[in-house]
Design brief:
Layout: H1 13-21, H2 29-44, E1 48-52, E2 56-58, E3 63-67, H3 75-88, E4 92-94, H4 100-108, E5 125-129, H5 133-136, H6 143-151, E6 160-164, E7 168-172, E8 176-183, H7 185-191, H8 194-198, E9 205-209, H9 229-239, E10 244-245, E11 247-248, H10 250-263, H11 274-291, E12 298-299, H12 301-322, H13 331-343, E13 348-350, H14 351-357, H15 364-376, E14 380-383, E15 389-392, H16 394-406
Parallel strand pairs: 1-10, 3-8, 3-9, 4-5, 5-8, 11-12
Antiparallel strand pairs: 1-2, 6-7, 13-15, 14-15
Helix pairs in contact: 1-2, 2-3, 2-11, 3-9, 10-12, 11-12
Length: 407
């Protein structure tokens, strides 16, 4: 059964303002779009929801990662979202380099308004926002487990407890967290362990992958006005006081049901669990799109249709970024082999000598697998028949130097 998704051309009034404010930037347009969605999510998530037939209340909190090579424009949309949500002031904005334990501590503390003396936050609401996920979130074996656990707000409506041997227990009252960050493909592959590719974190995270700039612009026009954040924050400030559940229009409900009944029974080739979570992802995004146009808690046909369009596009991003992501069983051996090749004279080494130098790190069978991966990825070249020689490629040198600079 083919599902026809109606495309609406004028569906995002407030997000359109973000586009207009950044028209001269080279940043991919999808990054600006998701900046707007995540900003709305951070502002409204603790207060609004969609009743899932009395089974649970679905909050529109979102985890979103912008993934692109360095310099492609991730920082602008992330910094915009951070500034806008900070200006609204109705949720904790957690940024900068930190540990997951420190973030949990911040979410557990109540903050008091300096002027009124009244508690600003009565629950564990927060917006985790950073330019580079792997840099801002210090490595911790509990990082992805905790982020996965606190994502589902309905499962933690009665509170969430973090118990540690050293620090005792920290209690989060009704945690509701939106996460918006960025990563390069290289950092994504290195930072996200394989167990968390299939273990739930990636299935809960919207991956926005871009390979090209939207446009070329040297940005030398000194007469251009600065982004008017005061103007852009006005709509978000109207949203911060909303409270209650969304209602469906009949046509919106029909579009969603038709898609759901076609999509859900299919066997999806997806090791991350993203496909299984698409129904809720789509509804979360639809709620944010609805509130980009006004302050009514109503899901309309165009909200569902556009959310379907946006989320279904992300299937390609998930496949590209997770096909080889996660620290594999041969990651350490691969790195050891690469270092031996790079340190050899002129970046060349015979197979025999590589096995001798790598004794204890890898055997001949493991080396075959390593070499195949490195050749297919363009890191090395292989020459010779009787005497097999491996040499680093120019592309391999460039990638290696870039990785060292970022580490």
């Amino acid at each position: 059964m083919e599902i026809t998704i109606k495309i609406w051309s004028n569906w995002m009034s407030w997000i359109n303002l973000l586009h207009e404010a950044t028209l001269d930037a080279e940043t991919p347009r999808s990054f600006i779009l998701w900046s707007g969605i995540c900003s709305i999510s951070a502002v409204v998530s603790p207060n609004v929801w969609l009743n899932k037939a009395g089974k649970y209340h679905l909050s529109p909190n979102i985890y979103c990662l912008l993934v692109a090579k360095s310099g492609l424009g991730k920082s602008l949309p992330i910094s915009m979202a951070k500034k806008l949500v900070t200006m609204v002031g109705n949720t904790r904005v957690i940024s900068g380099r930190s540990t997951i334990q420190k973030i949990i501590m911040d979410l557990s503390k109540s903050e008091t308004d300096e002027k009124t003396g009244i508690a600003r936050f009565k629950d564990a609401r927060g917006f985790i926002v950073s330019g580079e996920f792997s840099v801002s979130m210090q490595s911790d074996t509990d990082l992805f487990t905790i982020l996965t656990d606190i994502y589902d707000t309905h499962a933690n409506a009665d509170g969430w407890v973090n118990s540690t041997k050293a620090g005792g227990a920290e209690y989060l009252k009704a945690p509701c967290v939106t996460l918006f960050s960025g990563s390069s493909p290289e950092h994504f592959e290195e930072f996200v362990p394989k167990v968390n590719i299939a273990g739930g974190f990636i299935g809960r995270t919207l991956l926005i992958y871009e390979e090209k700039r939207w446009r070329l612009n040297p940005l030398v026009d000194e007469d251009m006005a600065d982004i008017d954040f005061v103007k852009l924050s006005c709509h978000l400030k109207k949203l911060k006081d909303l409270s209650g559940g969304f209602k469906w229009t009949p046509t919106a409900k029909k579009v969603y049901i038709d898609w759901y009944e076609d999509f859900r029974p299919r066997d999806h080739d997806d090791k991350t669990g993203t496909a299984e979570r698409f129904p809720d992802h789509i509804l979360k995004v639809a709620m944010c799109l609805s509130l980009s146009k006004g302050v009514e808690l109503i899901l309309r046909e165009e909200d569902i249709s556009e959310a379907l369009k946006l989320c279904m596009k992300l299937r390609h991003s998930v496949k590209v970024l997770t096909s080889s992501s996660g620290k594999s069983n041969t990651a350490a051996q691969t790195r050891a082999a690469l270092e031996l090749i790079l340190k050899s004279p002129e970046g060349k080494i015979s197979r025999e000598y590589l096995l001798q130098r790598g004794f204890g790190d890898f055997n001949s069978t493991e080396l075959d697998q390593i070499v195949e991966t490195l050749i297919q990825s363009g890191f090395i070249q292989q020459t010779g028949t009787k005497v097999i020689v491996y040499s680093i490629s120019e592309r391999g040198k460039q990638i290696w130097e870039q990785a060292k600079e970022k580490s």
